[in-house]
Write a structure and sequence with these properties.
The structure is a single chain. The chain is α+β, with helices and mostly antiparallel strands. The chain is 43% helix and 16% strand. It is built from four helices and twelve strands. The strands form three sheets. Strands 1-4-6-7-8-9 form a six-stranded mixed beta sheet, sandwiched between helices. A three-stranded mixed beta sheet has the order 3-2-5. Strands 10-11-12 form a three-stranded antiparallel beta sheet, with no helix packed on it.
Amino acid sequence: MSTAKPDPRPAPEIVLLDPPFWDAYDPRFPDSDGKPMADSTIQYRWMVTIAENLEELFEDRLDVLVACDLLWYFDQTNPKKCIAPDVFVAFGRPKAHRHSYKEWIEGHAPEVVFEIHSPSNTARRMREKQEIYDERGVEEYYYYDPETGRFQGWLRGEGGLESIEAVDSWTSPRLGVTFEPHPGKEALVIRRPNGEAFQHVQDIMRDRRVALRAAKIQRRRRREAERRADLEHERAQTERRLREEADHLTRAERQRAETERQRAETERLAREEADAVARAERERADRLAAKLRELGIDPE
């Protein structure tokens, strides 16, 4: 546990400026201390991972500022009094471009700070950082060593920043995220309030590539399905036309056969009628010949 040390000097007057002044560059307070952002790729990876995931977590909150390796000045009279936390979160501060975080302009210190272990983080330097965070009123401070899996947390209490004893499955009061440290390299799991774990940027990009490939495959399958549906529709249309043509031919054949039957019937009736006329004519001739014979006349 660390307790805040009293500052014998009077606190500088806090001057709140309007938003247009946030981005005004002041050469007295440069935006770089000349030091590298990270001492190793693993430190950089965790810095970006925590910052990007927190940024996404609070993307709908316009009054939450998430910063990564941004210089934080806390003494308006002394530019040397500054620190660059690996990640910090300031509530009640708008998302806006800043060259640095000037406490007398912002109105208060960031509420949550993260530090990722690096070779330059000696035990003495980490104590100095913790003392600064404690003195400035940081509410939550978290330290993680990805090489060993060591994770520590401090929460502001009556005596300042106090060590969190039960850090396993600890939920940040300010952030709402839960920490699940485990022994082993890069074993820390940080979960959102919905239980979803923070993802490293490389994992997000990998998942995005997988999603893009899956979407591409899905689009190709959809196009193939559409082509198959079009072919099936064309086949059905062709079969329908063939059936209609076959039906038409069948009806034409039936009509032709019916016409032929009617013609044959007409011819038969005409023959029968001709035969009947011929018989009637023969019978009439026979009766006439018989009459003539009766009269003694030879019909020949």
